[in-house]
Amino acid sequence: MLSSPQSQTAALVPGSLRSVHHIALNVKDMQASRHFYGNILGLHELTGDEVPKTLVDLVAAGKVANFVTPDGTVIDLFWEPELSPPDADPSRAFTRANHLAFDIAPQLFDTAVEVLKQHQVQIDSGPVTRPTGRGIYFYDPDGLIIEIRCDPLPGGA
């Protein structure tokens, strides 16, 4: 039996990819997205010398905003004013991305849910409790589903 050309193709050794370097999201309303990721989710927006050198001009022109998570993952927002979601109904799944998940300490989960409610963020589902922890799913300003999840509390509480 002949092997397919794909089976002879080289692959990266498991473990070669160390971490997610950055995530780039297209956004329709830059101000709404900056408010959402910075003021509601509490991510640090990169400014001044923190902005990657390759993006300085785009940030200065208001076409890109960069946020960083506490673990160092950068989220780049690219302004696309003509952007349309894959479907006008945001409850329908995106075809290229399912959701973006953030981890939070179990003790802070309920606080995060309250913050979302206070900001009247549209909730898709949850909070849910599973053996793997708790989660809540909601929408960013462009209809991408975002999850905040936590591990179970120690002792199963």
Characterization of the model:
The chain has 157 residues and is α/β, with parallel strands linked by helices. Helices cover 17% and strands 29% of the residues. The protein is built from three helices and eight strands. It has helices at residues 30-40, 56-60, 109-118; strands at residues 22-27, 44-45, 64-68, 74-79, 99-103, 123-130, 133-139, 145-150. A four-stranded mixed β-sheet has the order 1-4-3-2. A four-stranded mixed β-sheet has the order 5-8-7-6, with helices on one face. A hairpin with a 2-residue loop joins strand 6 (123-130) and strand 7 (133-139).
**Helical stretch tally:** 3
Distance N terminus to C terminus?
A: 55 Å
Mean pLDDT: 87
Proportion of strand residues = 25-35%
The 3D shape can be described as globular
Order of helices and strands: EHEHEEEHEEE
What does the main sheet amount to? 4 strands, mixed
Q: Count the beta strands.
A: 8
Structural class: alpha/beta
Spatial extent as radius of gyration = 19 Å
Summarize the amount of helix as a percent range. Answer: 10-25%
Low-confidence stretches: none
In which order are the strands of the major sheet placed? 1-4-3-2
Task: List its salient traits.
29% strand, alpha/beta, 8 strands, four-stranded mixed beta sheet, 3 helices, 157 residues
Write the layout of secondary structure elements.
Layout: E1 22-27, H1 30-40, E2 44-45, H2 56-60, E3 64-68, E4 74-79, E5 99-103, H3 109-118, E6 123-130, E7 133-139, E8 145-150
Parallel strand pairs: 1-4, 5-8
Antiparallel strand pairs: 2-3, 3-4, 6-7, 7-8
